[in-house]
Write a structure and sequence with these properties.
alpha+beta; Creatine Amidinohydrolase; five-stranded antiparallel beta sheet; 17 strands; about 30% helix
């Protein structure tokens, strides 16, 4: 499918959805503490989405099983869970856990996608380093994005930063175009191999991309749980995930999910 470039008006509408995504994540993060269930965090998102007449695009997202879409408005992944963790009343956060909060609101016909990983109470120094490196990897991507650059140049910098710090980049899941729907072309990998290079693309004004490094403390191999959604690391080592929705402009980028939207 061709990459769909967005107009100035469309980017402004996406920024509105992005502001909502940011605000929801901040409210969820404020509630993260030992004893809170992941269902309680999803309930916060449900309430905020309803207030804004928005929908969470995770809810009922289709799977390979007919009639069995994703059951919650957000994905909440704990410790070794990389992505697509299902919020439940029985999954209660404990001191020292790390938890990824991932929201995908649609508002006024336009989408945004954003994620953060936060610690529960006091976390170990090695876990804090994992969070810091993953966040830094996203920041490196944003710092270097500009028109005429090939995405593989950005992905190489991201991969280098992760691996020089002793971590691994998940390869089964990548970023993506976003805007009219939650998953659009192109694919936006966080690493470089011969396969992503074949699908490489040049950044152009009007592109709107979800950039989302997923970093694991051990080996990069992942596996799918029996629930058909939750992806965990095979070695059960912890994972972190940070994500922003970004618009490429004539002079650089605008981050649409940081609560303000600014030009770099």
């Amino acid at each position: 499918m061709p990459i769909v470039l967005k107009t100035r008006r469309e980017i402004d509408l996406m920024r509105t959805a992005g502001k909502l995504a940011h605000d929801i994540l901040m409210k969820m993060a404020e509630r993260v503490r030992p004893g809170v269930s992941t269902q309680e965090l999803d309930d916060i998102a449900e309430e905020e989405l309803a207030k804004s007449n928005a929908v969470g695009l995770s809810k009922n997202y289709p799977t390979y099983k007919p009639g069995e879409g994703f059951p919650a408005s957000t994905c909440i992944s704990v410790n070794e869970e990389v992505v697509h963790g299902i919020p439940t009343p029985n999954r209660v956060l404990k001191e020292g856990d790390i938890v990824t909060l991932d929201v995908t609101p649609r508002l006024n016909g336009y989408c945004a996608d954003s994620a953060i990983t936060v610690g529960v109470g006091t976390i170990r120094p090695d876990l804090q380093k994992l969070l810091d490196v993953t966040r830094q990897t996203l920041e490196i991507a944003l710092e270097h994005m500009k028109p005429t650059k090939r995405w593989s140049e950005i992905a190489r910098l991201m991969q280098y930063n992760v691996e020089k710090n002793g971590f691994s980049v998940v390869r089964e899941f990548v970023g993506h175009g976003v805007g009219h729907s939650i998953h659009e072309d192109p694919k936006v990998p966080n690493f470089v191999t011969s396969e992503p290079v074949r699908g490489d693309f040049i950044l152009r004004p009007g592109m709107t991309l979800a950039v989302e490094p997923m970093v694991v403390a051990g080996r990069r191999d992942v596996t799918l749980l029996e629930d058909g959604w939750t992806v965990i690391t095979e070695d059960k080592k912890p994972a972190a995930h940070f994500e922003h929705t970004v618009a490429v402009t004539a002079s650089g980028i605008e981050v649409l999910t940081d609560g303000r939207g600014f030009t770099l």
